[in-house]
Each structure stands twice: as structure tokens, then as C-alpha cells.
Amino acid sequence: LTILGLESSCDDTAAAVVRQAGDARAEILSSVVFGQTELHAAFGGVVPEIAARAHAEKLDVCVADAMAQADVGFGDLDAIAVTAGPGLIGGVLSGVMCAKGLSAATGLPLIGVNHLAGHALTPRLTDGAAWPYLMLLVSGGHCQFLIARGCQDFTRLGGTIDDAPGEAFDKVARILGLPQPGGPSVEAEAAKGDPARFRFPRPLLDREGCDFSFSGLKTAVLRERDRIVAEKGGLTRADRADLCAGFQQAVVDVLAEKTRRAVRIYMAEGPSRPLVAVAGGVSANKAIRARLETVCAAEGASFTAPPLPLCTDNAAMIAYAGLELFRAGVRDGLDLMARPRWPLDRAAAGMLGGGK
Ligand code: ATP
Ligand code: FE
């Protein structure tokens, strides 16, 4: 099976070709990503209108590049998979329209993929992970624990009640005058700082369960910055590094403790090959990866995190999710809809009256 995948739900335009022969491990034949960071740099965040226009302009080139690099033609493909949500509606629409055009022109089946399923199925693409595994999905817009039981079967154990951690990294970067996206720049600063100088809150640790809250943490960083600026007239390099280190340490501590709880719930089901996987942009963070690995080892579960290019948005994960859905018999028509909101777990998807 050979699948072309398209991704355009946020600020990366991406296309990729993934192939799986029989039950062998799937192989990424190409994965092209055009980032839009520079386009949004002056605005301090992603501007939806600019993003949508850039996706519309770049998708064709992206698809052509991905197919050329994979050395395949449309005749070699079995289906076209596209992110149909959740995300910025203009971007998602650009991708869906492009995929529909390709499907109509070639007669290839169309498969709408949930962007979160793309992230959540990444350990199957990279490690051939067996069901059920525990997924911690941590990205720019999401933060949740899911038990992955099948490519359309996810049970949510908990998640953030306000901001996602990626959003918190981005906001802290903005507060401290560091470049976007904030994750990599805050991580680099944190590596030079002292995590013990500022003691930021660990929200919801005192409450039972696997829910998170990150918005208070960002506010705490803002207050501390303002206090230092009022006192000394500005931030030194050391102040900035220490604030980043303290913030990152708080995020790591919270993710570690909640993961420990989620792993216990998962382990109580008695999985035969217990595996915990992390995915999404924030899973690129080395401090987070290292700490989660330690927690999982202590609980008797294996741990896996994607290679860095597969942590942040890419189309290989969308093509791969499309491949699993194709095997499961999923086919969409030219009436496929772009869905700005599309929860992954069954219970929530049911409540919105949709979700396959
Ligand atoms: P979603 O997947 O929830 O729709 P998204 O697609 O915008 O959101 P991703 O591309 O998966 O998000 O992740 C981007 C986020 O990951 C950004 O908020 C970015 O700051 C964060 N991020 C990237 N690298 C790191 C890092 N090394 N440490 C922490 N955060 C990081
Ligand atoms: Fe994403």
C-alpha cells in the first residue's frame, strides 16, 4: 500500500508518501515540510488568514516534491489522505480542497484524517507499537492522555483544562522576548539556567486524576518577570535563563507526576506488552523525554518518543494514519468536510454528533 498524505492544519504545509508492504513496517518514502515561521514572525503568533493563503500557495509544490522524492506517480498510489481537522479552518480547508482535486482528477480514494490521530499513531509508524499503548499527546493546541486500542479507538484518561503546554512554551517565549516557536528557544535557554532559583507552581498536582492546567504557570512567569524588571530595570541573560529553567522544570514535574498516574490506570488493564508513547511538538523537548522515560521505567512500562522531525507537524504521520484507516475500510467522498473541532476519543466525538 502506498499513500500520499497532506497536512495544513496549522503553520506547516506538508506532504509525504508512506508505503507498507504486507505486514512489514511502514516506510516513509518522502516527507516534505514547508514551515511558515518567518511569515508570522512579525505578529508574535500564527495569523490564520496568512496561514491559509500560504498553504493554498504551497500545497501543490509540496505534493510535487514529495512525489518526486519518493519517486512515485499517481498510478503507484492507493489513496490520498488529508488532515480534515482539528485546526485552523482556513488551512484545513486548503488541504481538503487540494486533496479533493487530486482525488477527483485521479480517481484515487480520499481519506480524511484527524490530525491528532496522526500524532497518536506515530509510535505505530516508528516502532510498530502494539495495541493497547498509552499515549501522552503534548502539542501546541492539545494535551491529553489516551489509551490507543485501535486506529479509531482511543479512550481519554484526562487532559488540560486550559492551555496546552506548547502554548505555554510559546507564551513564555513571548514574555521573555525569545523567538517563536517558543518550545525550542525556551528549551535552549533553560539548558543554561538554574531550575531551582524560581519555584513556579505545579498546578493540579494536589488534585486526583490526570488533568492538567498550564495557564497559571505562564502568568507566574509573567509576574516574576515584571517583579525583576521593576526592581532592576530589565532582565539579565542569567535571569532569562533561570526563568526558562524554572518554568520548564515545573512543566516536567507536572507531566511526570500525571504520567505516573495515567500509567497506573493503563497498567491496571494488564496490557501484555506495556508501552507508553509521547507525541506532538512538545515531545521534542529533551528534559521532558528523559523524565518520562524514568517514570515509565519505574512503573515497568517501555517508553518511546518519535525522532524530532516526527514530533512537530508533518505529513508522514497523516499518510500513515490514512494507511491504517484504509486497511480498516475507511473511504471518504468528495463531500468530506473540514472540521475545526474534532475530538479523538469516542465519548467526546459522540457528544459532538460526529467523529468516525
Ligand atoms: P496541535 O497538534 O495540537 O494541533 P500544533 O500542530 O500547532 O498543535 P505541533 O506542531 O504538534 O502543534 O507542536 C508545536 C508546538 O510544540 C509549539 O507550541 C512549540 O513551541 C512546541 N515545541 C516544539 N519544540 C519544542 C521543544 N523542544 N520543547 C517544548 N515545546 C516544543
Ligand atoms: Fe500537531
Structural features, described:
The protein is built from twelve helices and ten strands. The strands form two sheets. The protein has a five-stranded mixed beta sheet, sandwiched between helices. It has a five-stranded mixed beta sheet with strand order 8-7-6-9-10. Strand 2 (12-19) and strand 3 (27-35) form a beta hairpin. The radius of gyration is 20 Å and the shape is globular. It starts with a strand and ends in a 5-residue tail after the last helix. By secondary structure, the protein is an alpha/beta fold. Mean pLDDT is 94; it is low at 352-356. The chain has helices at 37-41, 48-70, 89-106, 115-120, 122-127, 165-175, 182-190, 215-232, 237-267, 286-299, 316-327, 346-351, and strands spanning 2-7, 12-19, 27-35, 79-85, 110-114, 133-138, 143-150, 153-159, 275-279, 302-304. Fe (iii) ion (FE) binds next to helix 4. It is an enzyme of class 2 (transferase).
Intertermini distance: 22 Å
Helix fraction bin = 40-55%
Q: Which band does the percent of strand residues land in?
A: 15-25%
Number of strands: 10
Sum up the overall morphology in one term.
Answer: globular
Largest sheet: spatial strand order? 3-2-1-4-5
Mean pLDDT: 94
Work out the radius of gyration. Answer: 20 Å
Ligands, ions, cofactors: adenosine-5'-triphosphate, fe (iii) ion
User: Secondary-structure element sequence?
Assistant: EEEHHEHEHHEEEHHHHEHEHH
Q: In terms of structural class, how would the helical and strand content be classed? A: alpha/beta
Which stretches are poorly predicted, pLDDT < 50 over at least 5 residues? 352-356
Number of distinct helices: 12
Keywords: Acyltransferase, Cytoplasm, Iron, Metal-binding, Transferase, tRNA processing
Catalytic activity: L-threonylcarbamoyladenylate + adenosine(37) in tRNA = N(6)-L-threonylcarbamoyladenosine(37) in tRNA + AMP + H(+)
Cofactor: Fe(2+)
Enzyme class: transferase
